[in-house]
Structure formats: structure tokens, C-alpha cells
Specification:
Layout: H1 5-24, H2 32-42, E1 49-62, E2 71-84, E3 89-103, E4 107-112, E5 122-127, E6 130-137, E7 140-146, E8 149-157, E9 161-167, E10 175-176, E11 186-187, E12 189-193, E13 197-200, E14 214-217, E15 220-224
Antiparallel strand pairs: 1-2, 1-14, 1-15, 2-3, 3-4, 3-5, 4-7, 5-6, 6-9, 7-8, 8-13, 9-12, 10-11, 12-15, 13-14
Helix pairs in contact: 1-2
Length: about 230
């Protein structure tokens, strides 16, 4: 829904007021107007673009393979643009997205922008403690091979992946890779997954099992500014 000129004007006035008062050292923290101005100042301006690093640690690809199922640690990047939202929010449209992981049976497994549809925008909204980021992302999954069978093999999401979390700022601070590869990174922000990611339209052919419906089980995703 396109916000009204009144709602857009209110948010812009609050953001400019917060910036101006912060510059003069007069920003108060007590009243509701001051808190609203602070929250509005956290939202990015319409048209701004951002690049972030992303990490999905310890995901499990549920496919017809002998146990243990493939465990994948995805790392990659995303670029987004802030679009008009509501009076207390903006939308974030994905411009570029790629994450990749390695597996001995599948080779490189990649998550990229969908090839057959446009991904819906995410939402960045003012919250009681800062911002709330609800990430929505349609994607294509590609693996280089299936055991001894050469690929690539591709799937499309049946519905967008969804994760959400609280942010003190946007974009979040950088995350740092853990020296222990079996442990998640530190820093940045963590968005908790709403449900597994379901994929459809899987490959078929001689030597392949039924891959029409597979899923990626994940706890969520880390995001942060480039290091």
C-alpha cells in the first residue's frame, strides 16, 4: 500500500528533527515525541541502497540421501534498496543476492535470486527497542552435482523464505566468523527463521530420486555490514 503524503511527511519531519537536535546536543530522551523522532531517524531514507554480508549456519538439506543429511554453512551477500512503506516503516527490495556452501556429495550449493519470479520486498519497521526486520526472500537453489551425476540441478522456492529479528540499527554492525567452523559467527544481527524453506520444481531423470519437493531446515540468518 502506498503511504499517504501525510504519513510520509510526518516520518520525514521526525527524521530531520532528530538529526537536527542530535547535531545541537538538544535531543531529549524522555518525551514520546523525542522517542518517536529517534525511532524515525533509524529508518533509512527512501532510495538508499545497502550491501550486507549474510550467513546461514548449520542448515540441513532434507533430500532423499542416506543419513546423515547434508549439513550446509551458507555465506554470501545481499544488496537492498529502501522503498516507501508505511508511516513507521520502509520496504527493502532485494537487488542482488547470493549465498553458497560446499558439500562432498553436492559440490557447491548456491542460493540466488529467483529465475522465474520477483521476490517480495522485506519490511523494516519501527519497534519498541529500535527496528524490526522481517526478511522475505524467494530464491533459486542450485547444486553442481548429485553424487556421481553431473549437474547443475536447480529448484525454486514454493514460497519465500521468512525470518525476523530486532535490530538496534540498520544496517546492523558487521559479524565476525568464529574460528571454530562448527560454531556460528558473532556480532551482526540474527533473524529467526519462521519455518523451513520449501523448494519445488526439482530436477528429474535417470539415476535421480524424487526431488520434486525438498526443504532446507534452518534456525535463521545472520546479517551485517561488510567487514
Amino acid at each position: 500500500m502506498t503511504p499517504s503524503p501525510t504519513s510520509l511527511g510526518r516520518r520525514q519531519v521526525l527524521r530531520h528533527a532528530a538529526v537536527a537536535l542530535a547535531g545541537t546536543g538538544l535531543l531529549l530522551t524522555g518525551g514520546p515525541n523525542a522517542r518517536a523522532a529517534q525511532r524515525a531517524a533509524l529508518l533509512p531514507a527512501i532510495g538508499q541502497t545497502f550491501k550486507m554480508e549474510m550467513h546461514a549456519f548449520g542448515t540441513t538439506l532434507v533430500v532423499p540421501l542416506p543419513p546423515p543429511l547434508p549439513r550446509l554453512n551458507f555465506t554470501g551477500r545481499i544488496s537492498v534498496e529502501a522503498l516507501a512503506g508505511g508511516a513507521d516503516s520502509v520496504q527493502l527490495q532485494t537487488l542482488d543476492f547470493i549465498m553458497a556452501a560446499q558439500n562432498r556429495l553436492l559440490g557447491e550449493v548456491r542460493l540466488t535470486l529467483p529465475t522465474i519470479e520477483v521476490s517480495p520486498p522485506s519490511t523494516l519497521q519501527e519497534g519498541p527497542g529500535g527496528l524490526v526486520h522481517t526478511w522475505l526472500q524467494s530464491m533459486t537453489m542450485t547444486c553442481d552435482r548429485w553424487g556421481d551425476l553431473a549437474g547443475p540441478f536447480t529448484w525454486e522456492t514454493s514460497q519465500p523464505a521468512k525470518a525476523s529479528g530486532d535490530l538496534p540499527q540498520f544496517p546492523p554492525p558487521p559479524w565476525t566468523a568464529n574460528p571454530n567452523p562448527d560454531q556460528p559467527p558473532t556480532g551482526g544481527a540474527f533473524l529467526t527463521a519462521a519455518s523451513p524453506i520449501h523448494f519445488k520444481d526439482g530436477p528429474s531423470g535417470d539415476g535421480l530420486p524424487d526431488l520434486s519437493d525438498v526443504q532446507l531446515q534452518w534456525d535463521g540468518i545472520y546479517e551485517g555490514q561488510p567487514r
